């Protein structure tokens, strides 16, 4: 009856083709749910055109607010169909919508500081030029990173158009014995932090390129990696 799909999958860095899947789902008369936690605000998603029934995201990530609440954009008729079907008190979407529709409030304690941060973040998104401008910055960060990391022997786990602009997973270079903990600390001591890999078998690590991050940050990070690589060769 329902198909749920992650848009930007942050373990690998892939940006899934939700448009193609949604087309099949809608042709079959089913409900399409998209997890856009890591992509909404940084990637253009024509929700109505693609036939997405529910799209879920967060106050932070590409919106660049702070963590504290998620939000859902959905078709009203599909929302009405969900009335009385929730198996959870706190995750009862219809009940939450109904309460907000009456008085504009959360059913329980409102995360007021997060809402204010979210509002400010939306104004900053608009000032930057909206989603197209933010997407271009993120993509530029990714392109710079992939190019210069590649020159040092770090190959991306996902290549080509499937690699999203949110986060990139890199393999360790072949025939090397890098210790992630050591590399992480080396980079952190110089002002930056990276993610460990979460893949089952491959030796990988991840670097995000969203948030208040620009090409100059990518330049500095790559300089740190170059220094580390040279020290490991010595």
Give the count of helical stretches: 8
Poorly predicted ranges (pLDDT <50, ≥5 residues)? Answer: none
Classified by CATH, the class of the largest domain is Alpha Beta
Counted beta strands: 9
Structural class determined from secondary elements: alpha/beta
CATH topology of the largest domain: Aspartate Aminotransferase, domain 2
| Radius of gyration from the alpha-carbon trace, in angstroms | 20 Å
Q: What CATH architecture of the largest domain would you give?
A: 3-Layer(aba) Sandwich
The CATH homologous superfamily of the largest domain is termed Type I PLP-dependent aspartate aminotransferase-like (Major domain)
Tally of distinct domains: 2
What fraction, in percent, of the residue positions are helical? 40-55%
Major sheet summary line? 4 strands, mixed
Widest beta sheet: strand line-up: 1-4-5-6
Textual characterization of the structure:
The protein is elongated, with a radius of gyration of 20 Å. Strand 4 (31-35), helix 2 (47-50) and strand 5 form a beta-alpha-beta unit. The protein has helices spanning 18-27, 47-50, 76-81, 93-103, 112-128, 130-151, 180-188, 215-233, and strands spanning 2-6, 8-9, 14-15, 31-35, 54-58, 70-74, 167-171, 195-196, 204-208. The protein is built from eight helices and nine strands. Helix 5 packs across helix 6 and helix 6 (130-151) packs parallel to helix 8. Strands 1-4-5-6 form a four-stranded mixed β-sheet. It has a three-stranded antiparallel β-sheet with strand order 7-9-8, with no helix packed on it. With 234 residues, the chain is an alpha/beta fold. The protein has two domains: 2-128, Aspartate Aminotransferase, domain 2, CATH 3.40.640; 130-233, Aspartate Aminotransferase, domain 1 (Alpha-Beta Complex). The protein is 42% helix and 15% strand.
